[in-house]
Amino acid sequence: MKYFTIVKYHPCVQLAHAYEHLFVSTITEYLYQHNRYKLLDYSLNGETYESGVIVVNGECYNNESEKLLNNIATMKADLGSEKSGYLPVAQAISQIGAEEPNMLYVGNPERVIKELKKLNTKSWKNIDSVSLLPDTKAVNEDIVDLIYPTNQLSNINSPLELNIEIKDQPLQICALWCELARFIGLSVGQRICHNFSTYFSSEHINNDDTTMTYTATFSVNRHSQSEINLEEVALLSRKTINEIITPDVLMRFSAYLSSASYSHNPHFAPDISYTAQNLGVLIGSQGWKNIATSDNMKKILQAVSYSLHYGSSSIDL
Ligand SMILES: [Zn+2]
User: Fold this and answer.
1) Which of 1, 30, 33, 166 is the most buried (most CB within 10 A)?
2) What is the pTM of this model?
């Protein structure tokens, strides 16, 4: 299995959307705990359509991720336990609340849990085996609106931001930093969303000639169960950064860049337009081979700084 596209369906669109978040979050966290990282080892995306159809697709870039995701069709989302108040479910509903423009209404929490459990016991279908989804069977009307958007706007809080910055560096170092910042941003971002119910809404790079700043932006649900504590976010971010920048992972990261080939495996290679837009230059396979050296990695790690911003508070990591 190199590529996979698997599907599930629930007639309540927002419940399906919450399940998509629960599943993707569970799988990403599972891969993270097995030292498999987005960009380096795999890609994984979820999408829920208006019909209630959930599509999860991705690609394994190596045997290790392939082995871990071999049974993805029967893997279950972590819904938590009754004792913990089904915390992951509450977090997923907060996340989709941060993603949706309108406030969500959850009618009957017990039924929501029951339906999520039912959805969890059904296997995912490989898209290759699907002829029509949803099929034309009549749906039970009282489960269609278990969660639905109200006509009130979400009133989203000011966002949470993670900044990764580098100053006064030559072009080649900046190019390598762009990729490394993105790699770190994706891993830290996934963990922030998993633990603090935020929604990873965007990432961009600001280049003002001397300073380059990568910013990952997270939407925060104002109605989520607990207010964001920036100190706690900082603690988790620091821990994740330390886990990501070990010599072993960095060596794998330079091997990934050095082996990039736009003719053989373009998905598993840095995005050409990302470097072109942020630095105004193109870097091909040969360029990455020259740049992704351990010396250059060391230079970046000495020069890079990290910070978090939320409302009027900021913390340097
Ligand atoms: Zn979503």
Assistant:
1) 166
2) 0.92
